Amino acid sequence: MKPVALILFALLSASGQSRRAILPPAAQQPAAEAVKPEDRGTIEGTITSATGEPLKKVNITARRNDAGLSPGMSYSAVTDAEGHFVIADVDPGKYRVDAERTGYVRLQYGAKTASSPGTVLTLAKAQKMKGIDLKLTPQAVITGRVLDEDGDPLQNVGIQIMRLVYSRGKKQWAPMNGSNTNDLGEYRLFGLAAGRYILSANYRQGNFVEASKGAARDTYAPTYYPNSPSPDSAARIDVTPGAQIRGMDIRLQKTKTVQISGRITGGSDGPGRTMIMLLPKTEGVMNYTSRSMSATYNEAGDFIVNNVTPGSYTLMAVSNGDSKQLTARMHLDVGTSPIEGITLQLGSGFEIAGRITIEGESTPNQSPGMRVLLQPKGGMMFGPSSQGGQVKEDHTFTFTNVQPDSYDVMVIGLPEGGYVRAIRFGDQQVNDSNLDLSGGGELTIVVAVSAAQVTGTVQNDQAATTATVCVVPTDGHDANFKMAPTDQNGSYTVKGVPPGEYRLYAFDNVESGSCQDPDWLKPYESKGERVTLRDNDKQTTQLKLIAVTPDN
Asked: What is the DSSP track for 192-259?
């Protein structure tokens, strides 16, 4: 398949123009109304460098941005020697256009920064859209070495560069790029956009080694540039466009470690099919699983985790047997003394049966493709969130191997105008952002197909074509929060809004998710437009563009 895909891509892009994109069968959406060939349009523009030189071989992608359509539906082109491109045979609809080339930072059309969303383009029937021009900024590069306490190089050390992003309304450090040191202790991070970052080094010492109970030794602790054990005290690195930052050396220091040992029980397929990991719990840092540690164990199920530095961890075991997945986990606070005698009891968790009830639905399977997701509050990598509850034709779904925890409940693939009106677990009414599961039961989700819609335009001195509209519930119910971009005419449409009281804001340059942070939003509260939305409302609200202050 891979050679065929490569040949197809070469044929499509050789002339700088694209053909209609084909989705894999799994990504196909329900059949839409056929588009007549004469109704298809084109998107045309020019790509240059920040200094104005035309850029050849830039990959241009126009991705559908219509509600309810697959984000994988896209069209592509490649710029010619003059930096010019034409994307032909494009279905009418809404699109985001981005440009990518080796040595430059990827950018969306209309975006003010590489990390901010661009303008959504509305392509009308048979429209020949021109002037979609972008200026690409050269990538920034950071290089350095990782050394031990004697100044000798350390190889195979994991390097991550992180920046602050919003997740569920909270700022967290998220990895943007990573690398490993070579035999000279050198690393190189490239493709970086301008911004503020922190840098970390993680010494990956093998855990599958000969070990005996009680064995312990010193090892190198995770370190943030230049020599901090925590992201809170790490040096902030300000990266400018196209910067070449060299000499970012990190010197690791030995630290005392302890050993964790115990036994795993309850697995029917033997320890050879069981994975045991120790996952660090670090506040304010996303995707921390790259620093997980694995265990060695014998046929009796006795396990040992070596070289554990002090800190807070989750010890987890996962066994993938022939019949079903078994899991176990526990919280551990590790100090300066070994932890012995732990018992991890594998179990299959409990089962959650559920049903979707759609108000006013006259026939079953009116809305195929719905899924229910349970996202653990603890953010664990294993559990029902990775499976999801596929909603069947009779609107039932099932979760197996659910572990006791608090969960967020999400329903994706809702029907047009649908929103979650209520959630019940057994006889108890629950909140979709705090479902406490300690045992099995039945989950009922009531979906109403009567959501409100808000449309309008955003104005400054002229139409605001790169604004982000935030619909913020005044009761703090995060699940009802909505965001939408303006198009090239300054128009916006927000669908699927549950009834309630809201404030509407239009920001000129806002990072995704920041509107959900009450602290970030506080200085702008008085500038929001208050609206009251009821079932099936269709309101038109004109908004004034709000300038975001750099320090906020």
From this structure: EPSEEEEEEEEE-----S---TT----EEPPEETTTBSSGGGSPPEEE-TT-EE----EE--EE--EE
